[in-house]
Amino acid sequence: MEVGEEVIFKLITHSGSARSNVFEAFQFCQVGDYEGAKKLMKEADENILEAHKAQTKLIQKEASGEVMEVRLLMVHAQDHLMTCILAKEIMMNMMKIQEELNEIKTHLSLNK
Fold first, then answer.
1. Is 79 annotated as a binding residue?
2. 76 tagged catalytic
3. Of the options 3.40.50.720, 3.90.1150.10, 1.20.58.80, 3.20.20.140, the CATH number for the domain spanning 3-110
């Protein structure tokens, strides 16, 4: 496996893990486990950082004059990173809304 390919697979792996962390964090939030959600979002951030490091290696290779052939695998890797970052931003907002909804539900059930 080429070095470039190895880096691309790291990008895919860490991006995919981050995306999974984010969606699992939302599930924790839905049941009121905000600490668990916070921990998973931290793991997502760590995975996104590792994905960015891999992406930076690829950019540095190209910037140093190494010709990088744009292949479907590279496009797939970039798509993974973009999607996980977008999912994280959306889920952060959804988690705030979910927390407020959980508080409203608790308040309503106490007032019955």
1. yes
2. yes
3. 1.20.58.80
